[in-house]
What we know:
mainly alpha, 0% strand
Amino acid sequence: MYDRVIQLAGSFAAGALASGALLAFAAGSPPSNVVAPRSMAARPAAAPLPAVAGASRLGLLRNEAASGDELSNWQLSNALFDRYDASGEADDLYEALIWMERRRNASGNAQLIARVVDRYCGQRVVRWHWFCVEGE
C-alpha cells in the first residue's frame, strides 16, 4: 500500500514537472500571430499607410520594421529624416541611422545613404559615422 502511494506521488510530481517545463517553453516562444518579413518587392511601391496621427504612424512603422519589413524600415528612416529636417531634433537623426544600419544591404539603402552624405555629415550625430568618414 505504501509503495502505491509513493508511486502515485512520483507520477504526480513527474507530470507537474513536465507541465511546468511546457509552460516555461510556451512563455518564451514568439506569439503565433507574428508574420514573416515581407520584401520591398512583395508590396506595392505606393502602399498607403493607415491614416493615424504622426507618433502613431511612426510607432506602426517601427513595429513593422522591427519584424523585418524592408519597406516599412525604409519609410521609417525617411520619416525620421523628414522629422529631423523639420524640428532639428538629433534623436530623430540618430534613430534614422540606427534603422538604416539594420538593413545595411537592402536595395533602397543607396538613396538613404546619399541623403545622409548630402545633408547630414556635418551634424554632430553623424560626423563620425562610416558613411561620412573619408577613406572608409
